């Protein structure tokens, strides 16, 4: 049998890096995808030394509409068969529908909707042909929350949950499971890039999780074939309560939660 291979997008930091480390520890060879080649190469050397796995680096910006095809060509050129896909790449931007250039909004959609879906479908077809595998699409607890005014992010993450469930319904018939992982506030550099570190640092510590905890729960959920995973007990409560709110209440909470 060929060795198992996992492809992780957004692998240079945060949850993506956490999944790369977890999957390497489980014996997966890796295809690491992100924009920052230097970070990927440093991570690759570390994982090779610690776990003895092969690591392939693909420096691509998923904001480019041709990136997914180039990633697939890189996989083919290396003679690899991906068994585990982690769609983690995100786009950190504070966007306003009124004030933002369309190019910024479009990139957010390209990275977190179009590229995610394209990878899930195109790699998913390959995994289905092999009859076994896992796909994790990283969504967010925000998928279950009222959407703040002028914000695409919550709607995008809601889409990720829904499309993951839909894909799982079909792929599971062929031995492949799809999981939407919905972390809440997690200690990563995402908030630094987004420029919201000062705001979120005021939140109670009970709301926060660390990357290893999120990754471990997400990995176990994928192996168990769960279509949706909300890591952390407190986050599960938040999602449940939010789902019980009337739409009129959710709308008003969204207006008050305006971040622009």
From TrEMBL:
Pfam families: adh_short. Transmembrane segments: none annotated. CDD domains: SDR_c. Keywords: Oxidoreductase. SUPFAM superfamilies: NAD(P)-binding Rossmann-fold domains. Gene3D superfamilies: NAD(P)-binding Rossmann-like Domain. Belongs to the short-chain dehydrogenases/reductases (SDR) family. This is SDR family oxidoreductase. It comes from Marinobacter halodurans.
